[in-house]
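FAQ: What does a multi-protein file look like?

Like this. Sequence, then tokens, then the next protein.
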Amino acid sequence: MSILVKDILKLDTLKDMVLVGGSAGLEKCIEWIYVSECLEDPLEGIKWLQGGEIVIITGVGIKSDIGVLTKLIEEISKKSGVGLIVNVGKYIKKIPERAVEIADKLEIPLFALPWEVRLVEVSKQISNAIILARIEEKFMNDFLNNILFAQADLGVNVKEKANYFRYNLQGKCCICILQINGLKEFAQSKALEDEISITKIKVTLRKLVQDILEKYSLKVPIIDNEEEIIFLNRAEENSMYRLNRALQEIQELVSKRMAGISINVGIGNGYEDLGFMKESFNEAKIVIESLKFDGGRQAIRKYNDIGIYSLILNVNNKSILENYCKQVIGPIIEKSKNNKDVNYIKILDMYLNENCNITTTAEKLLIHRNTLTYRIKKIEELLNCSLHNFEECFNIKMALYINKIL
């Protein structure tokens, strides 16, 4: 679990610390803490930054020199530091407005920490938070990777071990997959096409997901895999209700903060035995696949809600599906390919979706009712069927589903 800059505001020793600038950078990940003091040249102290550090200064070498403080913020930004904590009171009485402006511009969170707060306690608590977060993240990553992708024995005490980190895995659990759509395009729009930048976006997304889930009292084991965020959640009714609300908020917030990115959600069935989480994972994957064919964006679906797709997508022999599709609707597939003006597949699909109602289908297709009637008769001729026969309509609808997948 990564610790973000905003997370340090929750620490006991920093309860009196105030954010004065750079709020846009609060989602940055903290790799370590760095106390920088140099009497001769205050800028000398930060030349060893490697990226990801939050810097603390007392201002002993700066005092009232505004220019040095603003330069310090600029250098922290250049070194990929993630924030600056200024111990105000003795040497720096107040953080100047110019420094706040620079922090806002460069998105470097700038904090004012009262002089009375002991820096040794601050550095100790932030360091401990980072270390504990890394230990927890490693354990839960290994745990979730093992149950989903490995053959390793989970061990009898795995639920007790998870409980140590306050993860409740009692009762039925299920796997939830968040498919990130448009990630590469978003990165390109921000001129962030290198692997490190894309990884940072993924970390930010995962942390956003974690924060919202915890807001709804859902502390879950979570990992990311390619363009997916995967987590395990309890499947009892109250937990699933809160999960649905959290997922809706995640979708809304991601769309608002990251224009162009959307989130599809697939949820597998719940099982009491954690050994069956692979089944739940595969079910969630099938849900994600079904959303691609169903035109869903920003959708939240459970495995039990996808109907016929769960059957079709579990057929491994695709030639069986191809043969069925050709046998039932092959003639209009070919006809639609050779006719640029009339898409018989689209017409038939819409007609069946509208329960064979000529009027509503014509309205949705934006064509005249008589034109639609003529084309429906043409389809019946091509397929040698009657669209007033329930069984034939069922077979055709099945073939249309398969055609979407193929």
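And here is the next protein:
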Amino acid sequence: MSSPHEFPQIDHGLLRFLTCGSVDDGKSTLIGRLLYDTKTILADTLSAIETSSQRRGLSEMDLSLLTDGLQAEREQGITIDVAYRYFSTGTRKYIIADAPGHEQYTRNMVTAASTANLAIILVDARKGVLTQTRRHSYLAHLVGIPHLVVAVNKMDLVDHDQGVFERIRDAYLDFAARLGIGEVRFIPISALHGDNIVARSERLDWYRGPTLLEMLETAPAAHTEAAEAFRFPVQYVCRPRDSANPGLHDYRGFMGRVESGEIAVGDAVQALPSGRISRVKDIQIGGIDVQNAIHEQSVTLLLEDAIDISRGDLLVKPDEAPEAVKTIDTCVCWLSETPLSPARTYLLRHTTREVKAKVTRIHHRLDVNRLEREPAEQLQMNDIAPLTLKLAQPIFPDAYADNRATGAFILIDESTNDTVGAGMIAAGKSA
């Protein structure tokens, strides 16, 4: 395979991906190997890793130290916090999230998965599919990650045996079918030695598929696989001063991020909740006029008409407007050490809009280890459960399956301002 700097200069778009799986499956080492083999580690960082590895008496460089940045992580040899790393090849840029393998850090894994478009699920070739493998696979499926890659790691410790790989693949496919997971790709690797990570391995010559990096290079970027409705939550109303007349404002602009879809000068837009319609007069990015904007661009929109719009409002195209709802069916991951209580009122933040919310029903608690439903009257930290929430004011969501940005929300404890829950909207009932 060509070295990274020889890739053709083609932009395949940003890819956010996640590494997950059970404890000691080699997630941090895999990321370190990717960065090392693509030559994206700075010289001083590489020197520090070599020094740390020598102090530990290791004969080889410990690449997991690239992501395990907390002192407790280094001391215990585990991943606790989500570590993000960035690298690029000649064809695309990447943001990697290294998720903890321990069950007690499930909330960290859900946080990391919420923005990923691909998940690499590592399986130790010696241990096969474990409970935490199934748990992370379920969570990745639950939060809507569209592409899963199962990397059977540590093949060097099972003599690169094809039969071991195939048994793990068959066991995982049986589990995935029961869960409703569709597309899954499999690859045998050794993160420690770099087999099938960037370069193809002669020791695994029975495997004819692409290397891991080739899978990443060709994976679809976010927002590219289906047409998406335009969604623009307003973050701030901008009124810049006129330098010639300090008492005047040049214009009223609406600042925010295009969460999905695209918008162009001249397009009709509708402001929610007011329902007022206008047209886009100008679009600015960093003070520069542009003709259009696409998903994930932060822009300022200027409209032809003076409409009362403020933070928390949503701009959409009139023929794509979502329905106003005051009751939502959701799936929530509870993040707080304080249990969820149906007797309490929480603050729900959906895009830039905040409303008060109460739990009217906990349908059940999901035991993701056994894939079973259990009755529940409250939720403990890391619990996952379908809930029905009643809202004090309407919101304008999409189903999470259709739009991850406008189908997601967080729950906030009003007394502490702590984020206590993260949820996905399945459906809503009209306001």
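Q: Is there any per-entry metadata?
A: Some entries carry free-text notes. For the entry above: The longest helix spans residues 162-179.
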